[in-house]
Design a protein that fits this description.
Number of helices: 9
Radius of gyration: 21 Å
Strand order of the largest sheet: 1-12-10-11
Bound molecules: iron/sulfur cluster
Structural class: alpha/beta
Low-confidence stretches: none
Oligomer: single chain
Mean pLDDT: 95
Largest sheet: 4 strands, parallel
Number of strands: 12
Shape: flat
Helix content: 40-55%
Strand content: 15-25%
Length: 280
């Protein structure tokens, strides 16, 4: 049985940067708190916690003198509160998310209604919504009824959405609302790292007879990656750890593909490959 890795898989640069930063800062300071999960992967979170980085849900819960903002970023109100509370700040916001926040801020300043193609309750979206001073909405529905004051509207996207799905959203939104718009601006804020993983997974899925997708069950992009493979018509299983792999999945398989979400560390991918080799 041949085991083949997708050409691009695992940690994206923003997540790797955040994890490295939290590790370095924890080592220097002894302990710190992270506002939410640094990465949607339980084993990485547990490892960081052992080193002294505790996850908190809100600033009120911070027991340390330092708090870290994760790669997803936060709204300006959170920076303000951190300052008011006298906490030290470690900012691990991904630079690509920062660009999206800046775009939302500037568009709102210019009087645009900002429509963000994304999931309203995703932490990144809560941050970007906060940067546009109440002038934006996040939605997955291109046909949603919205009020467009000044007939100026801008469309941006959650960074982890694929370019293809954003293009489809823009097309449907414009078809429905063009009569209400004088000025339209579209800024492509999708992250190339995400598309690279989807494309590589899709390419590999076409050439194998089983796909294993490694990543946290709470990682939206890992689930999407699994869906991408599944939609190529190949049997696909998402696993968080190597011991979830079942022997019966491998019966009669000749080529098994492996990919991993942007929040999956190399160690988890290696463990999966090791177990597949031992079962082959
Ligand atoms: Fe940054 Fe892209 Fe990774 Fe999100 S997926 S953290 S935007 S590099």
């Amino acid at each position: 049985m041949e085991i083949i890795r997708a050409k691009v898989l695992g940690f994206c640069f923003g997540v790797k940067r955040a994890v490295d930063l939290v590790e370095e800062e924890t080592e220097q300071r002894g302990s710190l708190s992270t506002l939410g999960f640094v990465v949607h992967n339980p084993s990485v979170v547990e490892d960081l916690s052992q080193k002294g980085a505790k996850v908190v849900k809100s600033l009120e819960e911070v027991p340390t003198d330092t708090v870290t903002i994760t790669a997803h970023g936060v709204a300006p109100a959170v920076y303000k509160k951190v300052k008011e509370m006298g906490l030290n700040l470690v900012d691990a916001t991904c630079p690509i998310v920062s660009k999206s926040q800046k775009a939302a801020y500037e568009l709102a300043e210019e009087g645009f209604k900002v429509v963000i193609y994304g999931e309203e309750n995703h932490p990144e979206m809560r941050g970007v919504l906060g940067w546009s001073k109440g002038q934006s909405i996040a939605t997955m529905d291109p046909e949603i009824e919205i009020d467009i004051p000044r007939r100026k509207v801008a469309l941006i996207a959650q960074t982890t959405k694929s370019e293809e799905s954003f293009a489809e959203f823009v097309g449907k939104f414009v078809a429905k609302n063009l009569g209400l718009i004088n000025e339209l601006r579209v800024i492509n804020t999708t992250c190339p790292e995400t598309d690279e993983r989807y494309d590589a997974a899709k390419e590999l899925a076409k050439t194998v007879d089983l796909m294993i997708v490694v990543g946290g069950k709470n990682s939206a992009n890992t689930r999407k990656l699994a869906h991408t493979c599944d939609s190529q018509g190949v049997e696909t299983h998402q696993v968080e750890t190597a011991d979830e792999i079942e022997r019966q999945w491998l019966v009669g398989r000749e080529r098994v593909g492996v990919t991993a979400g942007a929040s999956t560390p190399d160690s988890a991918i290696e463990e999966v490959e090791k177990r597949l080799r031992s079962m082959a």
